[in-house]
Amino acid sequence: MTTLIKASGLGFSRQEKQILDNIHVTLEKGSLVTLIGPNGAGKSTLVKILLGILPPDCGQIERLSGLKIGYMPQKLHIDNTMPLTVSRFLSLPQKQPALRIEQVLNMTGVVHLANQYVQKLSGGEMQRVLLSRALINEPDLLVLDEPVQGVDFTGEVALYELIQRIRDELGCGILMVSHDLHIVMAKTDQVLCLNHHLCCSGEPETVSQHPEFRQLFGHHSSIGVYTHHHDHHHHLSEQG
Ligand SMILES: Nc1ncnc2c1ncn2[C@@H]1O[C@H](COP(=O)(O)OP(=O)(O)OP(=O)(O)O)[C@@H](O)[C@H]1O
Questions:
Q1: In this structure, what are the phi and psi dihedrals at residue 141, rounded to the nearest 5 degrees?
Q2: What ipTM was assigned to the predicted interfaces of this complex?
Q3: Per the confidence metrics, is the pTM higher than 0.90?
Q4: Residue 144, CA distances (Å) to 4, 48, 166 in order
Q5: Among 111, 132, 145, 190, which is disulfide-ready with 104 (CB 3.0 to 4.6 Å)?
Q6: Locate the ABC transporter domain: which residues (predicted)?
């Protein structure tokens, strides 16, 4: 196993509020780690610290020398007044060879959108384009902050499957922030459950049994194997 990032004892506070307290995280090559936790738990803050965008108040971070990180942010503001094709978007801020652009768009299944304007993309298409952008420099570590935002349920499952496939094919490490507990538990190697401190971490099965996890996500405590239930009936007459 190659360790990509090893962080220990991370702390971060603002306005007398302890946002992160004594956090230990190790990210390995080839491993898919998902960070879960309630709103305001400090997930994005921790991601920014691991990325090196934000310095922690205390603690140590060791990164593999020459580590390349691909980051898919939670939100990206794109100016609506400037028409921008997907290909051009992937060449920002750094010009990329057309072949590389085609490769990443193929990998994420949206090569047919290369000449489409980013402003015209659906939520699901945009997330795949953002994922393509995070992949463009062949990262050793992919950091995805809520990658399935604005994607419908079927699209979510497909996107999580794609993320797993990318990990398998590229052998990179993946750190992902997600709120979709059912899917996360089925499709991740390791879960970090954060609520300012690390409540619990480990394999999904173990985390789902942990008392702190159950306290935070009690209504999801049967997580483990995903099963889909219809809670309503379709009436053919309503559709036609
Ligand atoms: N620079 C800052 N100054 C003051 N408060 C901050 C700062 N950065 C983050 N916070 C606060 O820290 C808490 C954690 O924020 P963060 O965005 O990391 O949470 P999160 O777990 O990613 O939340 P969500 O699930 O809602 O996206 C929030 O209450 C936020 O308001």
A1: -135, 130
A2: 0.96
A3: no
A4: 16, 11, 13
A5: 132
A6: 5-220
